[in-house]
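Revision sheet: structure tokens.
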Amino acid sequence: MIDCYCLVCHKGIRENGSIRQLFYVNDILCSSCRSDLFDYKYLFRLDEITIEGLYVYTGKVRELLIQYKEYNDEALFPLFLYPYKKYLRKKYKDYSLVVMCSSKESILKRGFNHMENMVDILNMDVIDVLYKSKDISQKHLDFKEREQIRKFIHLKNKELLKGKKILLVDDVITTGSSIKAAYKLLKPHCLDVKVLCVCYSSAFVSNKRLKIIKLLGK
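Predicted:
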């Protein structure tokens, strides 16, 4: 029986996994590395926007996302959505994806579009309609400064949205300012817009305008 190797620790998944994994491997991480990721699926409501979050942006998942985005470790792209691909394809089967945009400078520097790569594993229709006109790092911005990010997010080719249901996908939500900006651009031109954030921060959860609807399961 040929073993499969964990994308993070590079150990054999069958060798170091559960009895079930000995015969059936349905992940690209071993059970130990997967358990290090805080995957709590929550459904949020921010103003009129419905947002589904998958991971708490802390610990190992934060480390891996930074390694993927900031240190250009492109090989990590499938690990974040891999366990959810069947669930998301079923839940949003009538939806097309729009990924939160990066600036041209960021994509050139990174060498790949990290969001497009991340959702590729879902094998869903992706519509390219958002772009960012300025490369601004949000790492050290306060809340008011983050709110200004909306000025640099724009819509192109809105005709592609007609008659579509859209799932807007972002990697991390901290204040929700970018999501709100993109949502307002998309909403007038399509049938419906929902939001999926791969990770959500503790700062986002503490937002007074946010309503936590329910925990969808771990």
